Amino acid sequence: MSVINPNPFTTRPEIEGTFGVVASTHWIATAVGMATLEKGGNAFDAAVASAFTLQVVEPHLNRPGGDVPVIVYDTRRGKPEVICGQGPVPAGATIAHYRREGLELAPGTGLLAACVPGTFETWMLLLRDYGSLSLREVLSPAIGYAQNGYPLVERANATIATVAELFRAHWPTSAAVYLPNNMVPPTGTLFTNQTLAATYLRILKEAKAPAAIVSCRSSGRAHPGRGGSWPRRSTASATRRRSWTRAACATAACSRPTTWRAGRRALKRR
After folding, report:
1. H or E element: which one contains 173?
2. Is residue 53 part of a domain?
3. Spatial CA neighbour of 211 closest among 130, 119, 118, 139
């Protein structure tokens, strides 16, 4: 005997489309992803653009200094692949070190709790090996919202309130961003993060020449006007693409050597 649910809706509507679908935890990031598809980007471009936007509009859930495992499926390769963007533990974060600090457990906040960030390089690796747009094109929406503002959601407001005193006492640079006028910003406030915008702009500036070298994998060539073109399997092109990723990662102070090797093993470049 089977029972048919006359109302299959549970908590989210079913989404169908003939052009493309983007889903995220914030409507602005979803809109950015769809806009990226509509201007000619592929699914991987949309994912990167949405991810960087989430780092701006959902600071309580996403951040540049975190980590991210990514599962991708490229129809040209015909198989699912994984990019391990989980940041490794720093070499100095040993049990002995924590005990010398008077700790029995790694703390939940602060520098002693942090992994070596893997998020930035993971998205750069995804963009380089699967994307079709430039770094500037996928970062611009996030920079725009960080500079011009977005409505602060209730959960972000609540999270800032829980750490407000910690910011004031120990993290003055964070307080300057998240406690404007030394106050917890109300829900719905047009909130900006000029510091994060400046960081992304610095990445674009310092990686300007190499950042033009983002290959269009569908054609095997770079986009006209953004660094020329090269044969897909050229040794020179591979060197230039690697230098672009390394330059960008060095600017973001991310853990290039460790996550690069992990990512390379997982992707097994063609």
Report:
1. helix 172-178
2. yes
3. 139
